[in-house]
Write a structure and sequence with these properties.
- The complex is a heterodimer.
- Chain A is mainly beta.
- Helix content of chain A is 0%, strand content 50%.
- Chain A has two domains: 34 residues; 72 residues, OB fold (Dihydrolipoamide Acetyltransferase, E2P).
- In chain A, the strands form two sheets. In chain A, strands 4-5-6-8-7 form a five-stranded mixed β-barrel. A three-stranded antiparallel beta sheet of chain A has the order 2-1-3, with no helix packed on it.
- Chain A is globular.
- By secondary structure, chain B is α/β, with parallel strands linked by helices.
- Chain B has a domain of 132 residues: 3-Layer(aba) Sandwich (Peroxisomal Thiolase, Chain A, domain 1).
- Helices cover 38% and strands 18% of the residues of chain B.
- Chain B contains 15 helices and eleven strands.
- In chain B, the strands form two sheets. Chain B has a nine-stranded mixed beta sheet with strand order 3-2-4-7-1-8-11-10-9, sandwiched between helices. In chain B, strands 5-6 form a two-stranded antiparallel ribbon.
- The longest helix of chain B is centred in the N-terminal third of the chain and has 16 residues.
- Chain B is globular.
- The chains are: A mainly beta, B alpha/beta.
- The structure holds zinc ion.
């Protein structure tokens, strides 16, 4: 099964949250576990991007593409970019892949490519 | 609430310092205590972001109070990311204003050159959202770069505007012996000449090397006192009249408009309201220019210029020494350096220096009202302060 990244939907007011928080920012409900998980959409448009040259030691690449994407449900997220010539507003499609390697852990996140 | 005055200030050179962390804080503190003319304090706050991780030292305030032989004064370290410094000033302000303490020493310190640049960058990046930002390899330069690209697209800010902030602030540092960077730069050298791409390569497009502050070690300190104590000490009467602090979402992308810095806007508004001042009253300001774009945007969000017009004011020279609102006349973070925990205190140090009329070549003539903005996270935790010379 394909890996997913989840948004968190408040059971009281329906507000979607990403990333996870303990208390809904809209209705401020204070009951525990009052969120349902909903997979984030994969398709969206590029809001902004950068190509980073000075990377933390874990990254054995020369440059790293990063961007903020507005997903088709209106939520935004940050992801890595595998796009040679990014442009603002371009359509992108995400896939959940390893985005950071640590000695004992692989971290999964969204990697976006041109749609 | 009691009035709170700055009776003493101290600072170390910002550079690579081969001294233990607590000694750097203590050196700045000794200068501040001597300047104020006090040998005993009620409370010590030490602002620092990275000592457990970068310097393998915890409980820093206990080390500083011992080094300064200030026992049995109360002491605590305050970690609030890059806004640690002004957060510690706020804590000191509250302590004196409440009537609980009469004399508080606030020191800010960082020693980041103990690790290499990549480790220092990674250490600062730990302030980002752990799951939605940090795991992707986001650094503060990357955040600033993505923010800059949106700002360029929306408001017409160009790489030239960014370079103009860099030239202004780095060259201003030449008038500040405590500042890290002591090398003059020109638009020609970092932007226009054929060598510019070599001199000034991209670190995170569209930001280049000279758009970012250097990685520095250093310390700064203030002595905060009650009015009665201030009159007894006889130093210039410089009062902290406004304190504002505000927060925003941890993840930058989650903000309704990611080109707004709402925490800057609110912290400044609250500080001005508390002081009974408006942005146009300010004679000299210290804004948190960890990246050149931030000086432009903060100059709008704090209310000096309308949204989207900060770069136009910059072009007109309004923000330079001699302009309508001189910003970062001591070099800012860009020229002075950015030992993270020290920065908020160093901003206050510069403003008090100005209000005392001790700015020498960088003095803003007749400055009586000063303002600082200490920007934590990528705009998720911001402290603004106003200072007024009363005598
Ligand atoms: Zn809700």
């Amino acid at each position: 099964m394909a890996r997913e990244i989840y948004a968190y939907k408040c059971r009281l007011c329906g507000t979607l949250h990403y990333p996870f928080r303990m208390v809904c920012k809209e209705c401020k409900q204070n009951d525990f576990f009052e969120f349902d998980t909903v997979p984030l959409p994969k398709a969206g448009t590029l809001v902004t991007w950068t190509r980073v040259y000075n990377l933390p030691a874990q990254y054995e690449v020369a440059t790293l593409g990063l961007g903020i994407v507005e997903l088709e449900n209106g939520m935004r997220m940050l992801g890595q970019l595998e796009i040679s010539e990014p442009e603002l507003g371009m359509a992108v499609i995400g896939n959940v892949e390893v985005v950071r390697k640590e000695p004992y852990d692989d971290y999964y996140g969204m990697v976006f490519r041109a749609a | 609430m009691r009035d709170v005055y700055v009776a003493g200030i101290g600072i170390t050179t910002f550079t690579r310092l081969e001294y233990p962390l607590s000694e750097i804080a203590s050196y700045a503190s000794m200068m501040a205590l001597k300047d104020a003319g006090v040998t005993e304090v009620d409370q010590v706050y030490v602002a620092n972001m990275g000592s457990p991780r970068v310097n393998h030292q915890t409980a820093l305030a206990s080390a500083v109070v011992d080094s300064l032989s200030l026992m049995p004064a109360g002491a605590a370290a305050i970690e609030n990311g890059p806004a640690s410094g002004a957060s510690a000033i706020k804590a000191g302000f509250q302590a004196v204003a409440s009537g609980m303490e009469d004399v508080v020493l606030v020191a800010g310190v960082e020693r980041m050159r103990e690790v290499n640049n990549l480790e220092a960058t990674d250490f600062v990046a730990t302030l980002t959202h752990p799951l939605a930002e940090y795991i992707y390899g986001v650094t503060l330069p990357a955040h600033a770069a993505m923010f800059t690209r949106m700002y360029m697209d929306r408001y017409g800010v160009t790489e030239r505007h960014l370079a103009m902030v860099g030239v202004k602030n780095q060259n201003a540092a030449l008038n500040n012996v405590w500042a890290h960077l002591q090398q003059e730069i020109t638009l020609e050298g970092i932007l226009d000449s054929p060598e510019a791409m070599t001199n000034n390569p991209y670190v995170a497009e569209p930001l280049r090397f000279f758009d970012a502050c250097p990685v520095s070690d250093g310390g700064a300190a203030l002595v905060l006192v009650s009015e009665e104590k201030a009159r007894e000490l006889g130093r210039p009467m410089i009062r902290i009249t406004g304190v504002g602090q505000a927060t925003d979402t941890h993840a930058v992308f989650e903000r309704e408009d990611p080109t707004d810095l709402l925490a800057v806007r609110k912290a400044a508004k609250d500080a001005f309201a508390m002081a009974g001042l408006s942005p146009s009253d300010v004679d000299v300001a210290e804004l948190h220019d960890a990246f050149t774009i931030l000086e432009i945007v903060e100059s709008e969000e704090v209310g000096f210029f309308p949204k989207g017009e900060g770069h136009i004011a910059l072009e007109k020279g309004e923000t330079a020494l001699g302009g309508s609102i001189p910003i970062n006349v001591g070099g800012g973070l860009k020229g002075r350096g950015h030992p993270v925990g020290a920065t908020g205190v160093a901003q206050a140090w510069e403003i008090v220096t100005q209000l005392r009329g001790d700015g020498e070549a960088r003095q803003v003539e007749g400055a009586r009202i000063g303002f600082t903005c200490n920007f934590g996270g990528f705009g998720n935790n911001v402290v603004c302060l106003t200072f007024v010379r009363e005598d």
